[in-house]
Structure formats: structure tokens, C-alpha cells
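Example record used in the benchmark description.
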Amino acid sequence: MKKYIVMLVCMLLVSSCALASRKSAPVNQEIPPVPKAEELTVTLNTYDLSFPEDMPEVVRQFVLTARAEFEAHPFERLPKANQYTKWYYEDNREIGWCSVFQIWCAYHSGLPLIRWNQGAHMEEECFSAMEGRVGNVYKAFLGQNRWLDALEGAVPKPGYLIIYGVRSSTPYTHIAIVESVTELEQGVYELTTVEGNLGSTVRRLNFRYLTAPKRKYYNMEAIPEAERTREGCQYTLQKDTWYVTGFCETWP
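Model output (C-alpha cells):
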């Protein structure tokens, strides 16, 4: 009898510990966790990227952290329960993780995080949103007056978040990190992005973004083959029905 009682107590302890762990998971925290100081001292490879002179260091680290994750897993198919989701949820749930990827990169680069419904205006100039749902990331930046509408011709900067929509469906289907922005001609920009959970992988996407397309919701174009000079990028558009909804201004 004592043996069974001991076993029952052990089971209850394990269960309570697991429950406590889930409550402490980032996804369940009303106030986003503050990055640990020791995690900000790592010197990252710059990959010969050039950034605007006024781009804050913490946002540069955000981009370089994302790029480092691509270099560690280039086009490698990852399970839905992976290092990013397990950190964020602290369990083995299988779920879409495009926004979780940008949260992970923000946290590990020292970029402050906000919740969409926290209400107060952010004092920090640089931040991202700790929201697993893409629509809630949009709400977070909209609430801080830091949302830029691509359908109104907004132009991004490196380090911004980019949100994609699907024509005749949701405007918030996927999210990624802008690595570089190159103006080709008036109203036409070449964007390189780092994408989490694009085809279940971390990959870089290179495409043309049109600020004044001839048709609304058709503001993405593939790079012509003769101009595809960047290594380690996907040049085909992920889906023909996707468009750029807008950008989250992670830094002013």
C-alpha cells in the first residue's frame, strides 16, 4: 500500500512541476521575458551585410541572429515541434512557427518584446511582438502606431518584420524578417528576407516588392533569372496568391 502511495505522490509532483513549467513558458507570460545579459555578448558573423548607418545595434543583432539560424539550418526541413516552438511553448505541440521564429530571434538578440494587448505605449524605440499569431503581431504594432501599410506604398528597412497576406483570404498568413532592402527604380525594391516555417524550413527569400503595382494585391514579383546573384536564396515566390500586407516598424 505504501508503495502505491509513494508512486501516486511522485506522479502528482511530476504533474505539478510540468504545469508550473507550462505557466512559465513565454507564451503564457503577460509581460514578455527580458533577454539574459550573457546572451547578448556573442559576436555574430556579419555575412558581409551592410546596414543603414542609423540602424540601432540591437536590430542589427536581430537580423544577424536570424541569418545565423538560416546558416545553421539552410533549407533543412524541421519538425513542427522544434527548438523554437519548444522554447516558446515549453512542450512538444506541433504548430505553425513563423512568428515564433521571429520571437526567438528577438529574444536571443536582446530586442525588447511587447504584447498586443498590453495597452501602454512602448518607451523603447526598438521592439518586436511576442505573439504567436501573425494577426496579433499586426495588432501590437498598430497599437504602437508602428504599422506600415504596403497597400499604401510603405517602404521597409532592414530589421522590420514583413507580413504577407493571401488574395481573397486572410491578410495575415505569414511573417518574416527583412534582411536587406535595395531600391532598383522608383517604386520598385528588391527585398531579401529570413523566413521561419516557410515550407517547414528556415530559408531566405529574394523578390521584388512594388509600392505602386498596376493591380492591388499584386505587389510581389520574382527576380529575373539573369539578375539572381545572391547565394542561398529562394527566388521563386512561395505562392502566386501571396502579397505583401505591410511592415512592422521594429525601429524608427
